[in-house]
Description:
Elements: E1 6-10, H1 16-25, E2 35-40, E3 43-48, E4 55-57, E5 68-72, H2 76-84, H3 94-109, H4 120-125, H5 132-153, E6 157-159, H6 160-165, H7 170-178, E7 183-185, E8 189-191, H8 197-204, E9 208-209, H9 211-218, E10 228-233, E11 246-251, H10 256-259, H11 271-281, H12 285-298, H13 303-308, H14 315-320, H15 331-342, E12 347-353, E13 357-363, E14 367-372, H16 380-395, E15 399-404, H17 405-410, H18 412-424
Parallel strand pairs: 10-11, 14-15
Antiparallel strand pairs: 1-5, 2-3, 4-5, 6-8, 7-8, 9-10, 12-13, 13-14
Amino acid sequence: MIERMMIQKITPTSSVGTIEKIAFTQKLSIAPPEYVAFAARGCHGILPRSGRATLRKQAGDAPSAASACFRVRMTPAACFRDVARMPPSPSESTLAQRSRREEVRMLARRRRLLCTARHPADAIHRFRPAPVAASRPRQAGLMARALADDMQQLGGLARRRQLQQLGHSARSIRAEIESRALRVVARSWVATAAARADAVRAVELRGTLGGASALASYGVWVPHEVPLCVATPHSASRLPPMRDTEWRLRIPGAGPAKTLGPRSPQWRVSLVDALLQHARCCLSDDQIVASFDSALHSGAVSRQWLLTIGPGMPRRVRRLVRHVDARAESGLESLLRLAFEREGWSVELQVRIDGVGRVDLVINGWLVIEADGKAWHDDPRSAQRDRLRNSALVLRGFRWHRFGYEQVMFDLDGCVAVVRALLASGRPQLSA
């Protein structure tokens, strides 16, 4: 066994043949071979090792500052860790130095330095000298793009620890902060310009989005007027003050950071937890059913899951499960349906009529009710399409009426009175 060895004057211009010659003159063939990595600026290689090894820079007497002498007695990970601490060349820029250190740390962390070659020459050939300086800016750009992609998948807001679990170093995160691609939010959080404003505010309040606010981020219907719901672990203390339009929800455990993986956004609770929190805290039974309808229609939850939440929910919520209908495409449809069913009328959801298409609700087989939300009926093209549909309904013997968001949310009794008057007028008769 070779306890130690000296590789002298390996410069960035050293050829593979020169390195092989040094390896064979030192009689480095051992069976079974064990290999360690050695590195100089501009060249990498694999050489046998024996026992515990360490890498120490020797007194460099080469004329070039980039050349160095090394003593090889170490494992690959420790070798590249020490190489990352080498003093930079005077000709290297700050970005190139950072890129070089990040490159060798990533290689060591991912264990890409292990070599299974049966001969030192084979191992050396796998690490041919390459112009490292030319690839450093490219490597830095790749790492920056990878960090940007992960931030986009996480919704533009993430913990530093979460990014480190995905393979990004603290140095690369600081570099993005210095370049203003990221901004620091509340201790250990970083955010991009695309992050949700309510999520950033929840993090600043030392919590996460919960309840109705989390449901809105998942695309589940909730009223627009609900205050910002901030979910905070029950053990949290010294919390910042909140505004009048914000309220805090205490949750058991440590929050989403412990229950969700590093690939999931941790600035909001899970969809299931958000539904349960909304069901416990919402004062309107109809709005709870409307949110359950939206989640069931989107496929986020199943009806079987709704049937199994009974034991842990209040009695009033358990009674509401039987009113959930996955056919409703918006919360306004659910609120109107529930109000009309209480009147004893026959209500059908999402009915397809020839020459018209699908309509929101049909009462008693001939009165069409449309719920016009703000997202789909406010622009001129949608208004023109709605007028054409209304004309087609009249020609086919239907009566129709439309309710807007404000009417349904703030004057539901008035909507019921209008429908009652329309039904009292009777079904229109088509002229021969």
